[in-house]
Amino acid sequence: SKGLAIAALVLGLVGLIPLIGALPALAGVILGIVALARKTPGKGLAVAGIVTGAIGLMMIPVLLVAILIPSIGRARELAQRSICAANLNTIGKGFHIYLAEYEFMPPDVDTLISQGTAAQAFVCPSAKANRTKDYFFLLGGTDEPPGNAFVACDYAGNHSDGGRNVLCYMGSVKHLTASQFEGPDEAAFTAALKEAEGP
Question: Under DSSP, is residue 173 helix (H, G, I), strand (E, B) or coil?
Answer without folding.
Answer: strand
